[in-house]
Amino acid sequence: MLIFSFFKTLTDQVITVELKNDLSITGTLKSVDQFLNIRLDGISVEDPERHPHMMAVRNCFIRGSVVRYVRMAAKNVDTTLLEDATRREIKDAKK
Amino acid sequence: MDHAAAAQISEPLDLVKLALGERVFIKLRGDRTLTGTLHAYDAHMNLVMSQVEESVHIVDVTDAGQPLPPRVERRNVEMLFVRGDSVILISPAQQ
């Protein structure tokens, strides 16, 4: 739930999703669900020469399980808040 | 370890809690390693890290099928989410 909430705070921001097949897609995060499936708008592919079949795609829905990384701007993330939320989640899970 | 600290550690992930806000070393599937500051994690070992250096360890093979000496490709990312299913191990970063 923690990471799901974290991604919800990133909606409408530009992120780069790197998939397990090395395809990197940059776009605006429109929505995310509990499986960390991701909907991206206005996408561009990092290496279009290697992935020409992606050129016509404007927006996409990415299955959470194929994601390796999500890169984002550090200024959009409150790291102290994240650490506190993580500690709280661990504590709640033990009850 | 003193008694109070031992009481708080009852499962393996409790050791990861001690690394929150600290530099950690992560080994991932696909011959990748990361070092960075850990800010969040959950039971799936999904991670949020900042100031990350990613190293991809590559062994090229000659046309004759002989392996060349391993090389490392490095990359820096300021804020990174790592999906837990790629994670092999988490360790405090060695100096």
TrEMBL record, chain A:
One of its GO terms (cellular component) is Lsm1-7-Pat1 complex. Component of LSm protein complexes, which are involved in RNA processing and may function in a chaperone-like manner. One of its GO terms (biological process) is mRNA splicing, via spliceosome. Belongs to the snRNP Sm proteins family. GO terms for molecular function: RNA binding. InterPro entries: LSM_dom_sf, Sm_dom_euk/arc, U6_snRNA_Lsm2. It is found in: Nucleus. It comes from Naematelia encephala. This is LSM complex subunit LSm2. Residues 5-72 form the Sm domain. It comes from the Eukaryota. The lineage of its organism: Eukaryota, Fungi, Dikarya, Basidiomycota, Agaricomycotina. Keywords: mRNA processing, mRNA splicing, Nucleus, Ribonucleoprotein, RNA-binding, Spliceosome. The keyword Lipoprotein does not apply.
TrEMBL record, chain B:
This is LSM complex subunit LSM3. It comes from Naematelia encephala. Pfam families: LSM. SMART domains: Sm. GO terms for cellular component: spliceosomal complex; U4/U6 x U5 tri-snRNP complex; U6 snRNP. It is found in: Nucleus. Its main location: nucleus. GO terms for molecular function: RNA binding. SUPFAM superfamilies: Sm-like ribonucleoproteins.
